[in-house]
Amino acid sequence: MLSTLIRRLSRALLWFVAGSIVLVLVFRWVPPPGTALMVERKVQSWVNGEPIDLQRDWEPWENISDELKVAVIAGEDQKFASHWGFDLPAIQAALAHNERGGNIRGASTLTQQVAKNLFLWSGRSWFRKGLEAWFTALIELFWSKERILEVYLNSAEWGKGVFGAQAAARYHFGVDASRLSRQQAAQLAAVLPSPIKWSASRPSAYVASRAGWIRRQMSQLGGPSYLMQLDSSRKL
Q1: 57, 176, 189, 206: least buried by Cβ within 10 Å?
Q2: What is the pTM of this model?
Q3: How far apart are CA 144 and CA 96, in angstroms?
Q4: Segment 190-232, tens digit of pLDDT
Q5: CA–CA separation, 95 vs 201, rounded Å?
Q6: 180-205: b or e for each residue (b if 16 or more CB lie within 10 Å)?
């Protein structure tokens, strides 16, 4: 009985490992048709009796403003070009902060956010975190940094039912993602921690201040020229 259960669990684990590897490899080249977060938001809207129409249009790397690419890195993950999916010092700092109490601080890299939004559900359980770590490792192994950022920018939530850079640019500023200015890009990046609560087009004093900080960080990183470092600066 026990041996049968172990064999079945082992077989299920093997299928999961193989399936997840194949899925990550496919999305290395094929645009994901949607994300787990989009499904979650759609289901939540049905449960709440307020169905929403999801807005999302996939745009390739070259059709997204370099200003937005750098703004997102500046605001969310300044070590993106050099790490392998995990920012250990940031994780340690977040754990120490959370142990002291107060608002919970996260330390997710852009790669971890892609893994979570694309494949997993919301939550803070250790099981989900373990799956997130697994998918993060696979993404870093099989995708380029450019691809990771491209998928992130096409999957990030930027408002109620608004997903991806193109939908966000049209919704908040009435322009295409390729034509976003540095200020607009900074405001979009500023609301990423709480895109439902905060508005990029009608920024609160806090969001405006955060956008200003992001612009300064963009300049310190070197602006769009920073993108040349992607896939050439990773540290073992």
Answers
A1: 206
A2: 0.91
A3: 31
A4: 999 999 999 999 999 999 999 999 999 999 999 999 999 886 6
A5: 33
A6: bebebbbbbbbbbeebeebebeebee
Mapped onto helix, strand or coil, the DSSP state of residue 162 is: strand
CA 175 to chain centre: 22
Task: Supply the DSSP symbol for 227.
Answer: G
Question: Do residues 176 and 170 touch, judged by C-beta distance below 8 A?
Answer: yes
* Token pair listed for 128: 């989900």
CA distance linking residue 11 with residue 84, whole number of Å: 29
CB 40 within 8 A of CB 121: yes
DSSP code of residue 109:
-
Are 189 and 70 in contact by the 8 Å Cβ rule? The answer is: no
- Sequence-ordered alpha helix ranges (H) in 54-144: 66-76, 88-99, 110-119, 126-142
Question: Using an 8 Å Cβ cutoff, are 41 and 195 in contact?
Answer: no
User: Residue 4 has which token pair?
Assistant: 């049968």
Round to whole Å and give the CA distance between 105 and 118: 22
Separation CA 114–CA 152 (nearest Å): 6
